[in-house]
Amino acid sequence: MDNPIKQALFQRTAAHLQDQGFAIAAQDDARPWGGFFVIDEAQAQAFADAYFEGLSADSLRIAGKLSPKILIVAPGQRLSWQYHHRRAEIWQVVHGPVGVATSDTDEQGAVKSYAAGERIVLRQGERHRLVGLQSWGVLAEIWQHTDAENPSDESDIVRVQDDYGR
């Protein structure tokens, strides 16, 4: 990671998560759009308590487990225009603003700005894209698995469009 601002943000985020008592199960700071932290799934309720005020893990559960993450998006970068067959998602903006586009079709909708404290609910199959605006954005995310026998993973990303050729 050659960007000192990105490096410092990832270090601060990791330290903050650890100070909150979260176990970081995985971390990826090499994504061209930013990166993410995966939190131990056993801590889904504590994660919901910390980042999704008023939501219980049971109310978030669709089928089977929940997978908590922290997403970090760089200014001016976009994640792929994508959807998923085996999960819904819920996002909470921790540090913003960030841009989010959604649509029920492959045509990308308008990018709307969301400030810290705002929540985005994405249905299974709903097309979506996270966009970095003028500054680094940080979101809490919970994957809501919809197939208990075959939980969602990174292979469950259907990319309609991707700036990075994936």
TrEMBL record:
GO molecular function, one term: isomerase activity
Boundaries of every Mannose-6-phosphate isomerase type II C-terminal domain copy: 58-161
Top-rank lineage group of the source organism: Bacteria
A Pfam cross-reference name: MannoseP_isomer
Keywords: Isomerase
Protein name: Phosphoheptose isomerase
Naturally occurring in which organism (per UniProt): Hymenobacter armeniacus
